[in-house]
Design brief:
10 strands, single chain, two-stranded parallel sheet, 4-stranded mixed sheet, transferase, alpha/beta
């Protein structure tokens, strides 16, 4: 890092920065990063504008650009001739460390970073080649890495000379469009490790501002060049940008930075540059880093609903909101937004029902504020289907479940039980709606044709109700299902528009039917004569109720042989048939059921993987984390009974641990925030030790009698958690 001497030196740099600000004074906010507005979904309602987002190609306009842009390329100025190699530089470093004479190293750094031309002269692989394509940036990455790795180990005057040179480059007068050499310089400067230090943030901010204000065509090049950066360096740049945003929001030493009113463009600029790296990350399969590495947990502590409302109200304006860049918002923060949005919708619907009742001079009833579902355990699916069909107008009210003939009061526990039992029945193989694939351990939609798809709509509505009411479900759908569920994320106004259709690949099929996908993969790599050896046509066969039916993948497909030349088309059409066309009606009903409850702009913030986590939670149990976050009532965590309890539970098999979680909370899945979000409580029960433990699933509470020994506690606990269906009142 840079020491106090460097910080004092930066105060003199402020003159340069002031010059930049003065030059931009007359322009105002026009040079702040412009938002990339995503076109509205065809036939859909007007949506708030979104900035650069990598979840869907429709929402990332740079992806639609051709690989080779036809815009005129400005001539590159001639570069100075620099002949220093990696070996020469490393030799100079070794000599300087040994002798203490850093003159040669100082000269190299001060010259190299003095201007964008010098940066290119030093780090361009071949100064005589233009490198004007997106495929090759022309940057000698090894040399850049060696120079930056050595930089923080040099004396302070060397480090200060680099920052002075960067300021010189940023102060350059720009006439006309940027050249590819300029873009190369930006790409190299972004990797400078000095920008991890807060004392360099003023310079860093101006670098980010210039990059954010580049044209879309220039951003296109930077995105494709960035995806070639090594994983380690890529992650460092992303972390540096996230840290910059966090420390600008919540500075440890506010006096280090200019007042917020004078640098409102800092965070938008950094976020837009981060969006370029997010776009680059999405172009690689598998991605360079996980999508969760773009999360900024600092945003969990800001007023998220204000951000959300700004996004909704000022979508097409230039007012910045983090919701324009949803990749930076953690799943925890998104869950908060969705929950609060759901609560506001619930209150609004309930208030309207109350007003309607009063306006008709009818006596208000508390039940009108809820979605009341009354079902018999013996007719669970049919009763649930009837209730949800009759009460479509109430789907956005708070859910309340009653089992006929049982005295249980629904404070949350009966709702969890209803979801669990209903999902268990619907997904049973005998029911025929879904097919369970043992190899992938997931369910997929049955392609059997039927007259009524209302039960698929019920499953979609159940998933929507679960998200809307913050309930986790034990559903095992492949990731492709959630991608289809967000295609599109807002229901089109045109009822004839296709829904639930998304681009699918062989990788998606691998996650559902790995054996079939492997066979198709073998077909693609087969080196012999495909037509003669496989003797296949563009036709597929499926068994439906004991009858073999054939389907053409394209017009006259039964007459078109599969050859070496067209086998890629055959595989793509086959995958599309299995995952889109053959189950279209089933999935469309499922889609409309889900969105009948969860129609919200908040869905635009979610990735398919995040929808899956919201619906299903996490199956990975960490009982030690649960132990750390458990609260006690009538017990201390050091009491003998509690120590016995945790000794027994931590020694349970995974199956028994899931049963305990289901017994105490109504679900064996872990919510988005982890075990701590369960607010699990163990209370002392003053009943006889002959009694079994009792659970209040509404409150995630376990009532435990003070058993005398570990053996008795284990025995009673296993009996209790293994016979945990049904509710009653004491």
């Amino acid at each position: 890092g840079l020491e106090e001497g460097a910080k004092n030196q930066f105060s003199t740099f402020s003159n340069f920065i002031t010059t930049i600000n003065q030059k931009k004074e007359g322009i105002g906010n026009r040079n702040s990063p412009t938002q990339l507005v995503i076109p509205n979904i065809k036939n859909g309602r007007d949506l708030p504008a979104l900035c650069l987002d990598v979840r869907q190609k429709k929402r990332m306009s740079m992806d639609t650009l051709p690989q080779e842009l036809k815009a005129p390329i400005p001539p590159e100025p001639s570069l100075p001739i620099r002949t220093k190699t990696v070996k020469d530089f490393q030799d100079d470093m070794e000599k300087s460390k040994a002798s203490g004479d850093w003159k040669a190293v100082h000269n190299f750094y001060s010259t190299t970073f003095d201007s964008f031309l010098e940066i290119n002269a030093a780090f361009k692989k071949d100064t005589n080649s233009p490198f004007n394509t997106i495929e090759d940036s022309g940057i000698d990455a090894k040399f850049v890495n060696v120079v930056y790795d050595a930089l923080l180990n040099t004396p302070q005057d060397v480090q200060k000379s680099v920052l002075k040179g960067i300021i010189n480059g940023l102060l350059q007068e720009w006439t006309g469009p940027r050249t590819k050499d300029d873009l190369r310089a930006y790409c190299i400067l972004l990797q400078n490790p000095q920008f991890s230090n807060t004392s360099t943030y003023v310079i860093y901010a101006h670098l980010l501002r210039q990059i954010a204000a580049l044209t879309e065509a220039d951003h296109h090049f930077l995105v494709h060049w960035s995806k070639k950066i090594s994983q380690k360096r890529f992650k460092q740049v992303v972390d540096r940008l996230l840290q910059f945003i966090s420390l600008r929001l919540f500075p440890a030493k506010p006096e280090e930075f200019p007042p917020m009113v004078k640098c409102t463009w800092w965070i938008p600029s950094a976020t837009k540059v981060l969006a370029l790296f997010n776009a680059a990350n999405s172009l690689i399969s598998p991605p360079i880093i996980s999508y969760t590495d773009f999360y900024n947990s600092t945003l969990d502590h800001i007023d998220l609903m204000e951000e959300y409302h700004n996004w909704q109200c000022y979508g097409n304006s230039h007012r910045f909101s983090f919701c324009q860049y949803p990749f930076i918002i953690s799943i925890t923060a998104k869950k908060v937004i969705i929950q609060r949005d759901s609560e506001q919708q619930m209150i609004s619907i309930a208030r309207q029902s109350l007003v309607d009742k009063v306006s008709r001079r009818q006596k208000p009833d508390m039940n009108m504020l809820f979605l009341n579902v009354k079902v018999r355990r013996t007719h669970l699916v049919s009763d649930s289907l009837d209730e949800l069909a009759r009460k479509k107008a109430d789907l956005k009210k708070k859910l309340k479940v009653t089992f006929v003939g049982e005295a249980g009061l629904d404070m949350g526990g009966l709702t969890k039980e209803w979801f669990l039992l209903l999902i268990r029945q619907i997904f049973h193989p005998d029911y025929g709606m879904f097919t369970y694939h043992k190899d992938s351990q997931c369910h997929w939609f049955s392609s059997f044709k039927c007259d009524n798809y209302s039960e698929f709509r019920l499953v979609g509505a159940l998933m929507g109700l679960a998200v809307y009411n913050s309930i986790t479900l034990d559903i095992r759908f492949p990731p492709c299902c959630y991608k289809k569920l967000l295609s599109p994320p807002i229901v089109p106004c045109d009822h004839n528009a296709l829904v639930g259709i998304c681009g699918v690949t062989l990788d998606d099929l691998f996650q559902i039917m790995p054996e079939l996908a492997h066979g198709l993969s073998e077909l693609l790599s087969y080196e012999g004569n495909v037509e003669e050896d496989f003797y296949s046509t563009f036709q597929v066969f499926q068994e439906e109720f004991g009858v073999i039916k054939s389907y053409n993948l394209k017009p006259n497909g039964d007459k078109i042989p599969v050859t070496n030349r067209n086998r890629k088309e055959y595989v793509q059409l086959y995958v599309d048939f299995l995952l889109n066309r053959s189950i279209y009606k089933q999935f469309a009903a499922f889609y409309y059921g889900f969105h009948s409850v969860c129609a919200s702009y908040a869905l635009l913030l979610l990735r398919p993987e995040e929808v899956e986590i919201l619906v299903c939670g996490s199956p990975e149990l960490d009982m030690s984390a649960l132990q750390r976050s458990t609260q006690y009532e009538g017990y201390q965590k050091t009491d003998l009974t509690i120590r016995y309890f945790w000794d027994v539970v931590l020694g349970f098999s995974l199956d028994l641990q899931k049963k305990l979680l289901h017994f105490a909370t109504g679900s064996d899945r872990v919510p988005v925030g982890g075990m701590a979000d369960l607010n699990f409580k163990i209370s002392r029960s003053e009943t006889s030790t002959n009694w079994l433990p009792v659970a209040h699933t509404c409150f995630n509470q376990l009532c435990l009698p003070p058993y005398k020994n570990k053996k008795e506690l284990r025995q009673k606990l296993i009996i209790g958690i293994s016979n945990a269906e049904g509710f009653g009142l004491e």
